[in-house]
Amino acid sequence: MSKGVERWVRKDIRDLSAYHVADASGLIKLDAMENPYHWPDSLKQEWLKELEVAELNRYPDPEAHDVKSALRACFNIDELQDLMLGNGSDEIIQCIAMALAEPGRKVLAPEPSFVMYKMIATFVGMDYVGVPLTKDFQLDMPAMLEAIEQHQPALIFIAQPNNPTGTGYPESELREILSKAEGLVVIDEAYMAFTDTDSLPLLNEFDHLVVMRTLSKVGLAGLRLGFLVGASSWIQEFNKVRLPYNISVLTQATVTFALKHFEVLQQQTDAITKDRNMLAQRLEGIGLDRIWPSEANFILVRTPKDTARTIFDAMKDQGVLVKCLDGGHPMLKDCLRLTIGAPKENESMFLALQKALQAVLRKA
Questions:
Q1: DSSP class of residue 299?
Q2: Which of 31, 64, 204, 343 has the most crowded CB, counting CB atoms within 10 A?
């Protein structure tokens, strides 16, 4: 290691591992919760006409007014609530943490959950407190409430439904956390398209709540568009640490167009939800130790003891890439996360998993 790096880069940053994205070249890519579907050709042609008039020589609208108007119309967002856009949810998480960070302040989240909550807390110098979920990957409410009382976190993140478990939490429990917390609570609804839960109405009751969403999971992952909904008093402060022009001209034009045709994306996510439920049924009885109910576009499964990595490698050898979570958190030992793809991709994934399971079970 360079002496300069060792001297000047913070030790807690040097101790981190960078967020790893697997190479999916030549593989059926079912590791990142992406929508597998493309737009119909007629819609693509209409979209390209919109891009023809995009002014690439000009900076984008810094407030992305057209995008915000389209989001309000599409998701029925109350005019009393303000909006902030980010380069994916990651940038929004970072803006929130930067605005709240002070020495000794803490970020709290159930875990296992989205890894960026902990990583970004480290980036901005905040202490992170993880509260383990129950063995069924539900909120451990006594532990959550005790941790809030003990640590008085400045910031709480709750993914609803949760990644990587796919589990959703009862609204009554969210209300209980909101009633207990004094700091800001962020409900992360990245997988809103695959569940009936909706936390936006809670914004009218709790002034220390903001709701974060993304368009990545509905089919626009390549655009990196996340958005935060909450009171203007919060949004104004977060905007101060958001970098200017963070949403490009092409992203703004494409999102505005896509939201006008949201029924196409809705049909796709409905198909994914249906296929998720069908796959969950098929997974029963093939030798997995556990399959968790999912309200997202993936299914979390547990393989027989000490076989997750072997099965992951065997599936990859068969041309199918899923996510191996074994080693990421103690509660995820022997777990794989299976993203729902198109029907043919799901069939290939199922057969690869079944074959890999049969092989390890024969050796047992």
A1: E
A2: 64
